[in-house]
Amino acid sequence: QVQLVESGGGLVQTGGSLRLSCAASGIIGSINFMGWYRQAPGEQRELVAASLSGGATNYADSVKGRFTISRDSGKNTVYLQMNSLKPEDTAIYYCTAIHYKQYWGQGTQVTVSS
Known about the structure:
Blueprint: E1 3-7, E2 10-13, E3 18-25, E4 33-39, E5 46-52, E6 57-59, E7 67-72, E8 77-82, E9 91-98, E10 102-104, E11 108-113
Parallel strand pairs: 2-11
Antiparallel strand pairs: 1-3, 3-8, 4-5, 4-9, 5-6, 7-8, 9-10, 9-11
């Protein structure tokens, strides 16, 4: 059974930093795609950052230069370092992985106070 377990969310002031972690279990071998989405109240879920197995990364324009995605492929774990946080970054952040099918974590709340 595949599980994605996220951690690291919380409450932070504007300009602060948080680091999210997501560990995938139940998957044998390398995961082609791991990434982070977020969903704010009343908004659609949007891709924040993506990491491909070959090392390529991709970011939403709104987080470029502030967020960094990284992976520990040996542990099937992905991280999202979030710096210079803004109130508009407030959302539930979901980890996702694609390994023959797409899997989702349960989500972790990130709240940035002004």
